[in-house]
């Protein structure tokens, strides 16, 4: 770095005197440690309270009094009274803006006395800000036009020494910076992450602006300071080193911005002086003073010269820094350039706001980094927000309008939002830029998933709607205002009907809520539009108005939280909560009296009445209308009348939820709502009792079509209300249980009736189980509940074999839900009270549930099914997949919660790879959940799954017939084992599980195997290849243990590992040994058993000693032989096998084992001699 040591400071004065007398070149060099520069960059603001101890080498003691007085002024503002002797320019950056001003004033005073050394201090400051950790050498130069000097201005690498060199001219100094080659990293102050980097960025910018502001009336125009400073920043901004380039580019563009402020002040001075000169010239000859005119003219000339000089400096910086760095490889540099360019255009439009500079802004809107694009858009917002600058932007908007419209769909949400805001400014400024096609594309963004983007598009839409409506005069009456609101509403309806993009009005209302809440909260206008008798709106428009009304009510009561829309503010402020409460009161006061009229008018329209039935859910219980019994009675009457007319699921679900909300405790209308609900349920139960009594005679169901329709309609109403309300006192379960009797041979109930009855009975059982803590007060009630549970499961078991698919599905879901509720009932049971009795599903029911999952979930489409599916729409396919995923999830929950044995999951895991895209996440979650409950039993389930698949494939191969499509190939089983092994993350945690998998696998292969001449190898020997997929998950001690266990099972058999039939054993042992060279693994395992006819007496004795696992220490290393590896080739061979063939062994490569001599040492290690 630039010299900082006291010795260098002391010697500089004499060197400077010698330079003035002799005219030779002086030089000095010093190195700065990495710790000094790094620590200085990371010091906290605590240093503002400390007294600076280091003395600038270029600030002499003769200026100490002036320096101390100025710094004390800055410290008095911070309540400090300690005297600061002197600080370096780099240290002052940690002391705040007031200290920066004081020290810069001291530096200007020092510059007036000795400008060369002061300039060297300033150069040292900028190089220190770059975080340079190298050596800087400064030499004096007296002729900057010397060709020899210019030829030495290079930046090169010395790979031998590992150093980089940069030599450049900052007249009158020639600087040479030397730094390590590996220093070009992100470890410099400006690139630090977190608050420290942002703080340094701000302080550096403040330093540059204060420096120019303090120098503009003194040394800024001395043709020395700015020339050297601009030369320094230009040279370093072109460096290969990222730290120099980034820091000096920022300093250069901030310097240009500060010079631009100076130029503006000079322009103002010229303008004021010119006005004064014109005033003086208009005076009479007696009043006119020629001397004063000359002084004013001279001042104008001086100001114009200074302005021209400043503009020349700005032009040099633009050409030397901006034009080279605006497309730098570093995104931060490009962002800084674009941000400052927007500031220059806005503040100094006469020089910068032209097409020559606007083109850079347009080009960089195509940058691949979002932050650069964001800076361009923000800069353009400042330009388009000023009406004075709009005429100069016509060519730019015509050239880059399409790019701006496309950036609304930018992948970065913030860029898209700011671009939409920019287009809103453009649309408000002029109507000629954006065409109708552009508006059609932009306004569709109101349905976007990102709420800030959709809200900005809603602002554009609302402004367009308002501009389309003719503004009314000031003396308008209420009738004209109401007409204007209806015109706005019609324009909104027209947009929604023409868009045809989205069917959910709630998202449109959410997008317009921030800007158009005055319209959307105007519930009197909306309800008046629905209740008016004149044909102002068509039925289709009224249906949309109903949706808008309900969506606005929901938005006012619950806020903007919508499914599928991100970017929503999750925490509401106290002010927002107050507004929400007031809105709830207002809508309750108005809609409580109007809603019965709306229900009466739209009672025959199913979709409209289903939406209107949801409005009472958002009523405020503290409103005055809640105490009006006449209004409450009117509302309940109209709701009951709607339920008499409709039986659609949407209307019934909305009504059931609304009654649930109205029947809650704490509201004045709760008693009337409960009475109305009970009357409805009692009437439906009485109707159903009479209809079933006539249809069920002699244990056989028989009814006419009209009566069946009435029964189904009544069951739908009871089902919808039983889903939300406890109807246990009406004994719905006992009423419907005769429908599920096994009388299909005599003619059972229709499928649609059975489906509704099953779902209604399952709701009755769920309510009974959930309220058992209150209802089970004696043993008799517990026994009755258990008998009812058993009865439901038995009847549902019979329905699992019904001919109708809907009945089977509903029976399956009902059993799963009820068994889950019973499991939860047992978990939350309080032992101090009388608890429920345990019920375990029968084995037949468990097999029936598993069979249902296998037949209806894991469906493998054949050719006919594929042709039929191709004709169906994508929506139907996704709905069917969603239904099957729900069935699988219901069954998996029974396994996870212990209702079914964990081994039942072994029938699900084979489909983990085959149907991974459809059900892989559910099966994987089941594996993890069962492992958390019992990791050993979960591992046994994985082993059981693999063994069952292997045995199925083996039986299929032994039968010699055609392979069944449901049997997985050997490669698929091996891949499934690999995926199972990947689920074991923490090897220490699942150490015992992995050892158990290997132990069971070895027992599966070798247990009950009797070797005979005809049966030389175990029938399941190839399973070891599958088992080897778990070897890499074993810890090293466990590998040795498993290897010893394997040797224990193989010691009783005659094994010739040179035969191909034993290749699976070789492969498995190699995986346990974890030897990279397979040849060494083959040689090692070959030392265990040799053919009896080829043994020499010596080798026989050694090998017999190696037989016993107790005599061999497997922990000792094995000497390796550099032979070709067969690990990858084995994998390739396995992949190319016949998919329906179980390989009895892996094919082996020919190895020259005879040329190797094996010997075993006393410690159990094996030595190999070639």
Automatic annotation (TrEMBL):
The record's section on InterPro entries has:
ARM-type_fold, Cohesin_Scc3/SA, HEAT_SCC3-SA, SCD, STAG
State any GO BP term from the record: sister chromatid cohesion
Q: What are the SCD domain coordinates in residue numbering?
A: 322-407
Q: Under the GO molecular function aspect, what terms does this record hold?
A: chromatin binding
Q: Which domain of life is it from?
A: Eukaryota
Leader peptide range in chain numbering: none
Q: What is the first-listed, main subcellular location in coarse terms?
A: nucleus
* Listed Basic and acidic residues bias regions: 32-43
Q: Which UniProt keywords apply?
A: Cell cycle, Cell division, Chromosome, Chromosome partition, Coiled coil, Nucleus
For bias kind Low complexity, which ranges apply? 1-20
So where does this one cross the membrane? none
Q: Which residues form a coiled coil?
A: 279-313
Q: Which SUPFAM superfamilies match?
A: ARM repeat (SSF48371)
Q: Which GO terms describe its cellular component?
A: chromatin; chromosome, centromeric region; cohesin complex; nucleus
Q: What ranges does the record give for the region Disordered, renumbered to this chain?
A: 1-79, 1089-1129
Localisation:
Nucleus; Chromosome; Chromosome, Centromere
Q: Which family does it belong to?
A: Belongs to the SCC3 family.
Q: Partners and quaternary state?
A: Part of the cohesin complex which is composed of a heterodimer between a SMC1 protein (SMC1A or SMC1B) and SMC3, which are attached via their hinge domain, and RAD21 which link them at their heads, and one STAG protein.
Function summary: Component of cohesin complex, a complex required for the cohesion of sister chromatids after DNA replication. The cohesin complex apparently forms a large proteinaceous ring within which sister chromatids can be trapped. At anaphase, the complex is cleaved and dissociates from chromatin, allowing sister chromatids to segregate.
Q: What is this protein called?
A: Cohesin subunit SA
Species of the source: Cyprinodon variegatus (Sheepshead minnow)
């Amino acid at each position: 770095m630039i010299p900082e040591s006291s010795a260098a400071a002391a010697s500089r004065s004499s060197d400077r005197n010698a330079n003035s007398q002799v005219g030779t070149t002086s030089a000095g060099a010093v190195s700065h440690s990495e710790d000094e520069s790094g620590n200085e960059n990371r010091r906290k603001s605590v240093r503002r309270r400390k007294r600076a101890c280091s003395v600038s080498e270029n600030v002499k003691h003769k200026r100490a009094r002036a320096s101390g007085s100025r710094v004390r002024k800055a410290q008095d503002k911070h309540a400090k009274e300690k005297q600061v002797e002197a600080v370096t320019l780099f240290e002052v950056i940690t002391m705040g803006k007031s200290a920066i001003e004081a020290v810069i004033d001291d530096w200007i005073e020092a510059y007036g006395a000795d400008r060369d050394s002061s300039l060297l201090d300033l150069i040292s400051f900028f190089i220190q800000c770059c975080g340079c950790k190298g050596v800087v050498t400064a030499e004096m130069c007296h002729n900057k036009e010397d060709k020899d000097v210019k030829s030495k201005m290079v930046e090169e690498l010395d790979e031998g020494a590992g150093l980089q060199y940069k030599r450049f001219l900052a007249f009158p100094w020639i600087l040479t910076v030397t730094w390590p080659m590996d220093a070009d990293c992100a470890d410099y102050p400006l690139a630090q992450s977190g608050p420290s980097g942002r703080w340094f960025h701000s302080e550096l910018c403040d330093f540059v602006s204060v420096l120019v502001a303090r120098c503009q009336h003194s040394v800024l125009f001395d043709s020395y300071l700015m020339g050297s400073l601009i030369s320094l920043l230009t040279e370093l901004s072109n460096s290969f080193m990222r730290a120099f380039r980034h820091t000096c580019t920022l300093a250069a563009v901030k310097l240009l911005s500060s010079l631009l402020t100076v130029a503006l002040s000079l322009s103002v001075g010229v303008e004021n002086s010119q006005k004064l000169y014109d005033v003086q010239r208009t005076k009479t000859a007696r009043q006119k003073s020629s001397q004063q005119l000359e002084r004013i003219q001279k001042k104008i000339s001086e100001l114009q010269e200074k302005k021209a000089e400043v503009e020349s400096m700005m032009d040099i910086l633009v050409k030397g820094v901006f034009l080279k760095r605006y497309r730098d490889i570093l995104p931060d540099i490009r962002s800084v350039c674009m941000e400052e360019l927007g500031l220059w255009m806005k503040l100094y439009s006469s020089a910068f706001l032209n097409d020559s500079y606007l083109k850079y802004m347009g080009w960089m809107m195509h940058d691949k980094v979002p932050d650069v694009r964001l800076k361009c858009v923000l800069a353009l917002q400042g330009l388009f927000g000023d009406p004075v600058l709009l005429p100069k932007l016509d060519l730019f908007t015509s050239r880059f309008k399409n790019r701006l419209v496309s950036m609304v769909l930018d992948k970065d949400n913030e860029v898209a939002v700011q671009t939409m805001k920019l287009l809103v400014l453009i649309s408000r400024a002029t109507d000629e830029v954006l065409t109708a096609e552009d508006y059609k594309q932009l306004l569709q963004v109101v349905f976007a998933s990102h709420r800030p983007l959709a809200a900005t598009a809603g602002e554009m839409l609302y402004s367009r709607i308002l501009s389309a409506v003719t503004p009314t005069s000031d003396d308008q009456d209420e009738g004209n205002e109401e007409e204007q609101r209806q015109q706005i509403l019609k324009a909104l309806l027209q947009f929604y009907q023409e868009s045809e993009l989205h069917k959910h009005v709630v998202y449109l209302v959410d997008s317009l809520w921030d800007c158009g809440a005055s319209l959307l909260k105007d519930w009197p206008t909306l309800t008046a539009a629905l209740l008016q008798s004149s044909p102002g709106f068509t039925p289709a428009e009224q249906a949309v108005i109903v949706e808008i009304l309900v969506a606005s009510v929901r938005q006012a009561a619950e806020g903007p939280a919508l499914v599928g829309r991100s970017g929503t503010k999750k925490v509401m402020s106290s002010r927002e909560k107050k507004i929400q409460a007031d809105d709830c009161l207002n809508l309750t006061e108005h809609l409580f009296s109007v809603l019965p009229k709306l229900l009466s008018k739209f009672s025959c329209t199913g979709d409209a009445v289903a939406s209107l039935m949801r409005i009472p859910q958002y009523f405020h219980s503290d409103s005055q209308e809640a105490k009006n019994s006449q209004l409450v009675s009117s509302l309940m009457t109209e709701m009951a009348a709607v339920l008499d007319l409709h039986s659609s699921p949407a209307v019934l679900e909305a009504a059931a939820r609304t009654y649930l909300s109205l029947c809650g405790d704490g509201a004045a209308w709760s008693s009337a709502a409960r009475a109305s609900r009970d009357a409805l349920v009692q009437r439906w139960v009485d109707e159903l009792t009479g209809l079933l009594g006539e249809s069920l005679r002699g244990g056989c169901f028989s009814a006419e079509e009209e009566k069946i329709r009435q029964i189904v309609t009544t069951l739908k109403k009871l089902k919808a209300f039983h889903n939300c309300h406890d109807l246990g006192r009406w004994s719905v379960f006992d009423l419907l249980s005769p429908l599920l009797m096994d009388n299909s041979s005599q003619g059972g109930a229709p499928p649609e009736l059975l489906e509704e009855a099953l779902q209604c009975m399952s709701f009755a059982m769920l309510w009974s189980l959930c309220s058992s803590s209150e209802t089970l007060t004696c043993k008799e009630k517990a026994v009755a509940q258990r008998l009812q549970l058993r009865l439901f499961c038995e009847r549902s078991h019979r329905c699992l074999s019904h001919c109708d698919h809907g009945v089977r599905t509903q029976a399956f879901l009902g059993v799963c839900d009820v068994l889950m509720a019973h499991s939860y009932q047992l978990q939350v049971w309080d032992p101090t009270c009388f608890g429920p009795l345990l019920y375990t599903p029968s084995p037949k029911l468990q097999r029936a549930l598993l069979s249902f999952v296998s037949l209806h979930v894991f469906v493998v489409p054949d050719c006919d099914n594929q042709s039929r599916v191709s004709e169906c729409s994508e929506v139907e396919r996704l709905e069917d997949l969603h239904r099957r995923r729900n069935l699988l999830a219901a069954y998996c929950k029974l396994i996870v919660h212990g209702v079914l044995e964990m081994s039942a999951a072994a029938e699900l895991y084979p489909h983990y790879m085959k149907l991974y895209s459809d059900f892989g996440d559910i099966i994987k979650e089941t594996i993890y959940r069962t492992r958390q409950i019992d990791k050993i039993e979960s591992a046994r389930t994985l082993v059981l799954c693999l063994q069952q698949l292997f045995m199925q494939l083996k039986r299929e191969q032994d039968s010699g017939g055609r392979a069944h499509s449901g049997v997985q190939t050997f490669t698929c089983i091996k891949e499934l084992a690999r995926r199972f092994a990947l689920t074991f993350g923490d090897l220490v945690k699942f150490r015992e599980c992995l050892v158990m998998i290997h132990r069971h696998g070895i027992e599966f292969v070798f247990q009950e195997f009797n070797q005979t001449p005809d049966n030389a190898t175990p029938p399941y020997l190839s399973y070891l290849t599958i088992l080897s997929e778990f070897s890499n998950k074993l810890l090293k001690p466990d590998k040795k243990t498993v290897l010893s266990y394997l040797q224990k099972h193989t010691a009783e058999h005659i094994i010739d590992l040179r035969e191909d039939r034993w290749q699976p054993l070789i492969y498995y042992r190699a995986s346990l040994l974890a030897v990279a060279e397979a040849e060494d693994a083959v040689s090692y395992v070959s030392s265990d058993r040799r053919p009896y006819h080829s043994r020499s007496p010596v080798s026989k004795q050694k090998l017999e000693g190696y037989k016993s696992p107790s005599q061999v220490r497997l922990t000792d290393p094995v000497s390796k032989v550099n032979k070709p590896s067969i690990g990858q080739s084995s994998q390739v061979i396995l992949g190319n096998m016949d998919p329906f063939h179980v390989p009895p062994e892996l094919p082996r490569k020919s190895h020259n084992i005879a040329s190797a001599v094996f010997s075993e040492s006393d410690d159990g290690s094996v030595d190999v001699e070639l």
